[in-house]
Design a protein that fits this description.
seven-stranded mixed beta sheet, alpha/beta, six-stranded mixed beta sheet, FAD/NAD(P)-binding domain, about 35% helix, D-Amino Acid Oxidase, Chain A, domain 2, 14 helices, globular
Length: about 400
Amino acid sequence: MAAKKRHVQIAGAGFVGLTLATALARRGWSVTVHEQSESLRDFGAGILIWRNALVALEQIGVSERIRDGGLWPETYDTDLNGKRVSSELRGYPYRAVARPALYSYLVDAAREAGVELLTGSRVVGAQSAGRLLRENGETLEADLVVGADGVGSAVRNSITDFVQERRSYRDGVVRVLVDRPEEFKGLEWNRVIDFWTLEPDAMRILFIPVGPDKIYMGMMSETSNERASQLPIDVETWSERFPHLAPVIKLAEHVTGGRHDSYQTNRVSTWSAGRVAIVGDAANAMCPALGQGASVGMVNAIDMAAALDEFDDIEVALQAWESRQRTFTDLTQEISGRMAETRGMAGGNGFSEEVLWIAGYVAPGTPDELVARYPVPVGMTGAISADQSAGRG
């Protein structure tokens, strides 16, 4: 008699929820994803997909689409007060892509794998025995329930085993996607440029071309700077600090659908309780100082699927998964928080040994042929100390 197909109910059809859904469906699971919005689309601007996520997403057939649809930055440059202070990552395997494009790749992959995607389905909680609770009063049984429903996760908040530590920072960010003017086209602009000014207060524009016709800008400022934090973009305030970017700042004024997010970290005591797990921002939201949040969440999701394939007992699989992902994830949270607190990226040369280790992280058991598709230049492999490794996971 054939083994019964295992079923998972996933709350949240964001990047991480879709990644997990596709990974499990391709491994033979029956998968249902609940999205509270009425349609499947991402309203964000742009994103950097690091080598860690590119290697992981090879396992669900998405990385090739990212390579075809995004841009490979020449370098990651840092400018402070109009002066170039460092140029890093030449030849490093990472990708800049528009968030709506990445989202469409993940939705397509999920549908191709046979995932059931339910829109307008609001989840209000879960029970550790493997039950998902919907707003309409319905209780859905599953072998596994996963909360991939963001920093305000209803799944996480409904189970007392998930104890949270939250920390807020003084900065926030507005993200915009604008058309790429002619003067910002050409190879000399096909790079990430991290523009900073620290006086009289900190402001930052992370300038990322995501293709020949679009630019993503992450516009960071102190939350106390009301003019820099407002939407629509205050062109005068931003252009005064970054006059050389005035043409694209002017375009950002007219972008719709933007939002301002304050920096925060959310660390949860455990990522599973019985047959309920949390992943992505529900489990480990991190401030975007390193731009690693989405990549880490997708790596976590792919490795959860792998662990569930390795162990017959779901609770054992979830514990093994968390054990081997905690070092990588906690270290990323810690460093991103440190960078937010000190604004350490402003000084340039921010890709230390530990940051490079995070960017190049490969989950245990990843096939060698997938890793080989993303060779790292000599001297950029990174490392962490024995104390760092022993202190987590």
